Amino acid sequence: MLKILGKASSINVRKVLWACSELGLPYEREDWGSGFQPTDTPAFLALNPNAMVPVIVDGDFVLWESNTILRYLANQHGGAHLYPAAPRARAAVDQWLDWQATDLNDAWRYPFMSLARQSPAHQDPKLLAAGCALWNARMELLESRLQATGAYVAGADFSLADVVIGLSLNRWRRTLTERPHLPALEAYHARLRERPGYLEHGDNGLV
């Protein structure tokens, strides 16, 4: 059975858990990370030299990097409905998977650490204001995309891109109290809430 190493509160672990829900894929999960088993031990570093969660163990195959894990699971376990084989359709999904991992992650880093994690090292008012403005700007870009598709991030159908973007949307909604009214995003959030995997691993009270 697939084994997932990582605490369930981690946004990147929750990506994998939600994908497993969409795939109907059984798994066993072990708590690793802050507050649980440490990831800087030789045993864990042998699995992921970055000392980060999640890591999956699928038989004799070990893999890390959450968005890469999503692609692998869809490819390996009958997930063409989430990660299409046609090059252009797949490229649209990859585009938003990569955007989430780079542009969007970079935008939220300072305000998330300041507001959600209450990090003493992230309390500069100017940097916080700039970070919040950038994060909101990224979400406005996403608003434009959803206005264009009228449905999901990569197009008309739910895909792996919506797993990572949906969790990011949840983080934005739960972290920033001052954010623009974005009706397409609100409608998108309502569509995601129709999916059991999002209710369990996304909109479940965790940031």
Automatic annotation (TrEMBL):
PANTHER family the record matches: DISULFIDE-BOND OXIDOREDUCTASE YFCG, GLUTATHIONE S-TRANSFERASE-RELATED
Keyword Transferase assigned: yes
Keyword Transferase: yes
Molecular function in Gene Ontology: glutathione transferase activity
Keywords: Transferase
Pfam families xrefs: GST_N_2 (PF13409)
Residue span(s) of domain GST N-terminal: 1-81
Enzyme Commission number, as recorded: 2.5.1.18
Root EC class: transferase
GST C-terminal domain mapped to chain residues: 86-207
Protein name: Glutathione S-transferase
